[in-house]
Amino acid sequence: MSVAPEVNVNELLNLARTKDLGQSEIVRQKCKDARQHLARAMQAVLKAPERRQNWPPGIFHIYDGVIETSTDAFARFDMIDELRATQKQKNHLSVTLIMFIEVSVLALKIIDSSAILELYEEFYDKLKRLLTEIELRMAKIQAEAEQLENNGEEMEDQNRSPTAEMEEC
Prior knowledge:
Elements: H1 9-17, H2 25-46, H3 57-82, H4 87-110, H5 117-159, H6 162-168
Helix pairs in contact: 1-4, 2-4, 3-4, 3-5, 4-5
């Protein structure tokens, strides 16, 4: 089993800011490495139950919610690979998910019983909205790809000559 190297998530963020996510296989590999790194980081956080011994139920609800949204975000990576989109769009979505998961993992590390519950609830609501926005962006890209494909088929049908259609019959 190969171990993913430590990943500089800030490097991916800078690539996203400069819109330099094109067809690069390097970016794709960096995203894959970051995904593995974040999965290990999330596992490490989950394996620290002693932190959660005296938490009130409200904190558990938020903690479990952040874990759930993070897990959902990991599942979106597989969906990105299946999208009919450009590599640049796929890379951008991957970097967005990586940033989302990075924030989630950091939140899981700092959540504790001494903090104000309302702040965590607000943060969790923002996480849910962000994941929904990512899902909507993915759906929009897929819909645009399908529309382009349908338009291409319509153009082919319009360009066919009546004699070609008769010959097929």
